[in-house]
Write a structure and sequence with these properties.
- The complex is a heterodimer of chains A (about 230) and B (about 300).
- Chain A is mainly α and about 230 residues long.
- Chain A has one domain.
- Helices cover about 85% and strands about 0% of the residues of chain A.
- Chain A has eight helices and no strands.
- Chain A is globular.
- By secondary structure, chain B is of the alpha/beta class.
- Chain B is built from twelve helices and 15 strands.
- In chain B, helix 6 runs parallel beside helix 7.
- The longest helix of chain B has 16 residues.
- Classes of the chains: A mainly alpha (about 230), B alpha/beta (about 300).
- Chains A and B meet through helix 1 and helix 3 of A and helix 3 and helix 4 of B.
């Protein structure tokens, strides 16, 4: 399993900078727009969110490399098993998310520190909490997303499964449809009310983290069965 | 008369220690079936797997390597049935089996040194000194150490695979068309590396190829496979005994009358018939006036695959 993780890590290292540059390029105008005087939080939150989201693209990229040169078949001829292939990929995906959370948070903090300087003010301490919560919240969404998508990729391979990656994004667009919005808003409002009744978002985060962790582990089990049954 | 020249050779290594035993392996795909294939790789020997494209060589190798699920049959590695192994046992056993693919199947962005490092992590018995010495000898190191796999030539990619596999500490190496697409010089280098490795300890190899001259130089045993079935298994030397008789129709009829029905493979040529003779010397004694040339592996394959059984 160590060899597989090393191979994946090496591939990631080579592609990481490219993804970081693309992310910074896309996020910079959004951060700039959301970082007027007194509006720093929105910009920094976007930075934290964008960098954390990067782990999705990196995961897709890794699965893409599996299908080049027949590596997906070849690695199973090494002293390993289908189960180890799946476990190493899930472990690395989790590490990627953790890494991007740290990176996103640090970047958000830096922006939060720099932008008020440009305006000649000082950042409010509350904004640091927003950045951390945004990174962690995004990480939970990303892990849940990967938990749903990875079994599909292990079943079909990334070429056939890439459409599946767009489905959750398309579903998010449904929020613009009025009946959907009308249905979702009360749910969000009750969640918010529940969070306020707790007095702190921490219990809500902890609960969500446990649910997402269980979902991720369950997803790994499903992927193991799927992958072990595949022919290459 | 019939058994003196027309009996096809076969091999029986049932009582010999074998690193690989394949018994009745069947795999069904739509439009193709690998049908009850059996073969053995005795310890310390090279078995050449010969067949045209699509004959089932790669499917058989995949079954041995466990990358496909069989519909029937068993594969025993070092005396252990693969189907009965736990994950941990399978991984340990795979540490003794190396695989060389027809293409360089590593991620293109990894460098030569990184591939070697990955092998070192994967194979507990990987011999770093052997890797460095072999890789230096064939020009892979030091100049290509930092080169990415995608930038290597086909020959260099194959050498990298071969060097890593042979240094991995594997006792059995499975090679799928290792010399396909290589120029004659690199091909000879690759064969030299394999030959040197075989001379060392009790190493075994299963090599598929349709470049039969390579197998003439390497193999101790040959297994001919066609349309998913083994059509002949024999010792390499048995092919040296074989011949191709070039006969007119009347001569063919005479020979067929003497032979057991269904024992000979004949192929219609322009004005004559080519007939595969399992024992050239016996045939020449029986028919001193008929022309019988020595058969190459190619001749044997063509006559077995394209000839009609008479």
């Amino acid at each position: 399993m160590r060899a597989l993780m090393y191979a994946d890590w090496t591939v990631l290292r080579r592609t990481f900078l490219r993804y970081l540059l693309v992310t910074l390029f896309v996020m910079t105008p959004i951060v700039a727009m959301g970082s007027g005087e007194g509006e720093v939080a929105a910009g920094t939150a976007v930075a934290a969110l964008s960098v954390t989201m990067m782990s999705i693209y990196m995961a897709i990229s890794l699965f893409g490399f599996d299908e080049t040169n027949g590596w997906e078949q070849f690695r199973l001829t090494l002293p390993t098993s289908a189960r180890q292939v799946v476990r190493s990929r899930y472990a690395l995906a989790a590490l990627m998310v953790a890494g991007t959370v740290v990176l996103g948070t640090v970047l958000g903090m830096l922006i939060q520190w720099i932008i008020p300087l440009l305006h000649g003010t000082v950042a409010a301490p509350r904004e640091s909490v927003i950045i951390v919560l945004t990174s962690l919240g995004t990480a939970l969404v990303v892990i849940a997303f990967l938990a749903i998508e990875m079994p599909i990729v292990f079943k079909l391979g990334i070429s056939k499964a890439r459409m599946a990656f767009t489905v959750p994004f398309l579903l998010c667009l449904l929020i613009n449809v009025e009946p959907v919005r009308n249905a979702i808003i009360p749910v969000l409002e009750s969640l918010e009310a529940f969070a306020r009744s707790l007095g702190s978002p921490a219990p809500l985060f902890a609960g969500a983290a446990v649910i997402v962790a269980l979902l991720y582990l369950g997803s790994m089990r499903v992927s193991e069965s799927i992958y072990a049954a595949r022919d290459f | 008369m019939s058994t003196t020249f027309s009996a096809m050779p076969s091999i029986d290594v049932t009582n010999d220690p074998c690193d690989l035993r394949i018994k009745g392996v069947t795999k069904r795909y739509e439009g193709f079936t690998l049908d009850g294939v059996s073969l053995d790789v005795p310890r310390g020997s090279v078995v050449g797997l010969i067949g045209q494209n699509g004959a089932g060589k790669t499917t058989l190798m995949k079954a041995v390597l466990g990358t496909i699920h069989m519909n029937g049959g068993t594969v025993e590695l070092f005396g252990r049935d693969l189907a009965s192994l736990t994950d941990a046992e399978l991984i340990t056993l795979r540490g003794r089996v190396g695989f060389v693919s027809a293409v360089t199947a590593f991620p293109g962005v990894m460098t030569v040194s990184e591939i070697a490092r990955m092998y070192r992590m994967a194979f507990p018995a990987f011999d770093q000194a052997a890797y460095e010495s072999l890789a230096t000898r064939i020009g892979l190191l030091p100049q290509n150490a930092g080169k990415k796999v995608k930038d290597l030539s086909r020959g260099m990619g194959m050498k990298l695979q071969l060097v890593c596999t042979l240094a991995s500490g594997a006792d059995l190496v499975i090679m799928d068309e290792p010399t396909a697409g290589l120029d004659p010089i690199v091909r000879e280098e690759v064969l030299d590396i394999v030959r040197a490795w075989m001379e060392g300890e009790a190493h075994s190899a299963l090599i598929s190829s349709h470049i039969t001259t390579d197998l003439e130089k390497l193999a101790d045993y040959l297994v001919f496979i066609d349309n998913g079935r083994v059509i002949l298994s024999c010792e390499r030397d048995a092919v040296d005994q074989m011949g191709v008789a070039h006969l007119r129709t009347s001569e063919l009829e005479r020979v067929l009358a003497d032979a057991a029905p269904g024992s000979l493979h004949v192929l219609r040529q322009d004005l004559s018939w080519a007939m595969l003779v399992p024992d050239r010397a016996a045939f020449s004694r029986a028919y001193p006036d008929y022309v019988c040339d020595r058969a190459s592996i190619d001749d044997v394959m063509v006559l077995l695959v394209k000839g009609e059984v008479r």
